[in-house]
Design a protein that fits this description.
The protein is of the alpha/beta class and about 450 residues long. The protein contains 13 helices and 19 strands. An 11-stranded mixed beta sheet has the order 4-3-5-6-7-8-9-13-12-11-10. Strands 18-17-16-19 form a 4-stranded mixed beta sheet. Strands 1-2 form a two-stranded antiparallel sheet. The longest helix has 22 residues. The termini are far apart. The model has no long low-confidence stretch (mean pLDDT about 90). Bound molecules: zinc ion. This is Capsule biosynthesis protein CapK.
């Protein structure tokens, strides 16, 4: 039995033996989060300059790109920086060997994204990048009183992490870190009953998972299948968009705050919710911009998010389009942290629906409406054509006959012109290849 105190000593020691510096980074991040806005921006800019100078020195691909746009890596303004072309997934696929830093001294890790559409992206990271990102995550979880080594149950469906190799590789960390990884695939009632029994025995301090998986558990708990006999410090929702209706249900069922974590496997940890409800950009880890050409309404703060990972020295991600749309905010937060905020995270551009007039409707608005129906366990909206929408639904026993008409009427209101909405009851909805649940599949946009 490892007590929290022993773990407090063991974990940093273990990290040090592995050559990682997570706890040194954590101490640094505990300090920088309180810097005032201007000071923090300066700190961020220093890191950006260091990354650009390194990329010009050691990364053939960027050396060429900087030359082409006439960027002086020793001295540049934000305007100069914005001349660097946006990096697409394809750019990385086509130039992989040239993006890897020459003679990088640290240990490399090869990773891939679990793409929900198209082929995955293979890329490199380093133990340094990973350690910094872990430190950033630990820092943000501490906002909620969640300490390193607190027992964690994580519901995960990604075939990447659940591969045998990864499990063996991480087994030691998991034991020391008190980290239980459970599959979020195939969450039948019998499986959920087992998970909850295990949780009741172990009493984890924190629960992490896809909102869709956590929501299934919440619905199961609320339906009275069984009861939780502990209260976690928080429930972290990650890797998918968190709908307000899901948040409410999860919060009720677990009796704990739901914490929104926003990251991308390739871009890194991007933003984290604080107890005041703001999504704070993890500004020491990433520099975020919005691609102004992609704003849906002309607002320059809204559009595709471009990520520069400030700690990606082995394989630099600079002005990388991760595929999500966000709205940046210039408001400060009452929690007092200088970290900038995201007003909104809007998900993928493919999460939009279209109507016959060619108008775009944000899929999450529609998803939010359907999520209000108590009798729906899971759903997925498939846009076949601009005038045909299929809604696949998994019902529970609260589903009423009148719900059919309510859904159709409520959704039709978002569309200009005719739209044919078909409800298709199904037994289950499979997660995508990446393990994530997709609310919206727009076949008309492909
Ligand atoms: Zn805050």
């Amino acid at each position: 039995m490892i007590t929290p105190l022993v773990r407090h000593i063991l974990y940093p020691l273990h990290e040090r033996l592995q050559g990682r510096h997570t706890f040194a980074y954590l101490r640094e991040l505990e300090r920088t989060q309180w810097l005032e806005g201007d000071r923090l921006r300066e700190h961020q800019w220093d890191k950006l300059r260091e990354l650009i100078a390194h990329a010009a020195r050691s990364v053939p691909f960027y050396r060429r790109v900087f030359d082409e746009v006439g960027l002086n890596p020793q001295y540049f303004t934000l305007e100069d920086f914005r001349r660097i072309p946006v990096m697409e997934k394809e750019t990385f696929k086509e130039n992989e060997p040239e993006i890897l830093a020459e003679a990088y001294p640290g240990k490399l890790v090869r990773l891939r994204t679990g793409s929900s559409t198209g082929s995955p992206l293979w890329f490199y990271s380093s133990t340094h990048t990973q350690a910094f990102q872990n430190a950033a995550k630990l820092r943000c979880r501490r906002w909620w009183g969640i300490e390193p080594g607190d027992m964690m149950f994580e519901f995960w469906a990604s075939p990447i992490e659940l591969s045998k190799q990864a499990l063996v590789h991480n087994a030691k960390d998991r034991h020391l870190m008190n980290h239980y990884l459970l599959s979020a695939h195939n969450m039948t009632e019998a499986v959920m009953a087992e998970y909850i029994a295990l949780m009741n025995r172990k009493k984890p301090r924190v629960i992490v998972g896809y909102p869709s998986a956590l929501h299934l558990l919440a619905q199961y708990l609320e339906a009275g299948g069984t009861r939780l006999r502990f209260t976690p410090k928080g429930v972290v929702a990650t890797a998918e968009m968190l709908l307000p209706a899901q948040r409410e249900a999860i919060q009720r069922a677990f009796g704990a705050p739901v914490i929104n974590e926003y990251g991308a496997r390739d871009g890194g940890l991007l933003a984290y919710e604080c107890p005041e409800g703001s999504m704070h950009v993890v500004a020491e880890n990433v520099f975020l911009e919005v691609d102004p050409d992609t704003s849906p309404d002309g607002d320059p703060a809204r559009g595709d998010v471009l990520v520069t990972n400030l700690e990606s020295f082995a394989y630099p991600f600079i002005r990388y389009r991760v595929g999500d749309q966000v709205t940046l905010s210039d408001k400060s937060c009452s929690c007092g942290r200088g970290l900038p905020r995201l007003e909104r995270i809007e998900g993928r551009r493919t999460d939009w629906l279209v109507d016959s007039a060619g108008r775009k409707i944000h899929g999450l608005v529609v998803a939010h409406t359907i999520a209000k129906v108590q009798g729906i366990r899971q759903f997925q909206i498939v846009q076949k054509t601009p005038t045909e929408l299929h809604i696949r639904i998994v019902k529970n026993n609260l589903y009423k006959d009148s719900d059919d008409a309510w859904i159709i009427q409520s959704l039709a209101k978002y569309f200009t012109g005719p739209v044919h909405i078909r409800l298709l009851p199904v037994d289950r909805i499979e997660a995508s290849q990446s393990g994530k649940h997709r609310f919206i599949i727009n076949e008309a946009a492909c």
